[in-house]
């Protein structure tokens, strides 16, 4: 459901339609992609993130739909490194982000390590990464 709409997701997840229990929207993950380019990161736009999350929360609630909530996955940077501060405020950032996701309506998904406030690795060369996307760039 990466680029679908709230209206479509309401149709899919409204219990009266007996289709899906929830949908994953990836719109909030694109707030730091300049011109939609995943590998050319820019500072994230906090206001845009807030607007997207609010739009999906209010829209899905009003239409009887249900969100799957998540900050990151295997294709994304660690949430504390991305939207928080992985230095001096790592613990506070992790707690704030965990609180935010658990206070929204929907089912929260916690990516492995997120419960510990895990940060991005500090590799200095692309060859140190051993995942499909970095190897096939």
From TrEMBL:
Main enzyme class: hydrolase
GO process annotations (BP): oligosaccharide catabolic process
Glycosyl hydrolase family 13 catalytic domain: residues covered: 2-123
InterPro entries: GH, GH13_cat_dom
Listed GO MF terms: alpha,alpha-phosphotrehalase activity; alpha-amylase activity
Domain of life: Bacteria
One Pfam family matching this protein: Alpha-amylase
E.C. numbers: 3.2.1.93
Keywords: Glycosidase, Hydrolase
SUPFAM superfamilies registered for this protein in UniProt: (Trans)glycosidases (SSF51445)
PANTHER family: ALPHA-AMYLASE FAMILY MEMBER, TREHALOSE-6-PHOSPHATE HYDROLASE
Protein name, as recorded: Alpha,alpha-phosphotrehalase
């Amino acid at each position: 459901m990466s680029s679908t709409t709230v209206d479509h997701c309401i149709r899919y997840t409204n219990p009266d339609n007996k289709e899906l229990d929830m949908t994953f929207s990836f719109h909030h993950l694109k707030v730091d992609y300049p011109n939609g380019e995943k590998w050319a990161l820019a500072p994230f736009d906090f206001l845009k993130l807030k607007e997207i999350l609010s739009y999906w929360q209010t829209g899905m609630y009003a239409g009887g739909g249900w969100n799957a909530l998540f900050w990151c996955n295997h294709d994304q940077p660690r949430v504390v490194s991305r939207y928080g501060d992985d230095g001096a405020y790592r613990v506070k950032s992790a707690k704030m982000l965990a609180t935010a996701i658990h206070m929204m309506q929907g089912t929260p998904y916690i990516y492995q390590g997120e419960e510990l406030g895990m940060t991005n690795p500090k590799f200095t060369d692309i060859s140190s990464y051993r995942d499909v996307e970095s190897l096939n760039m």
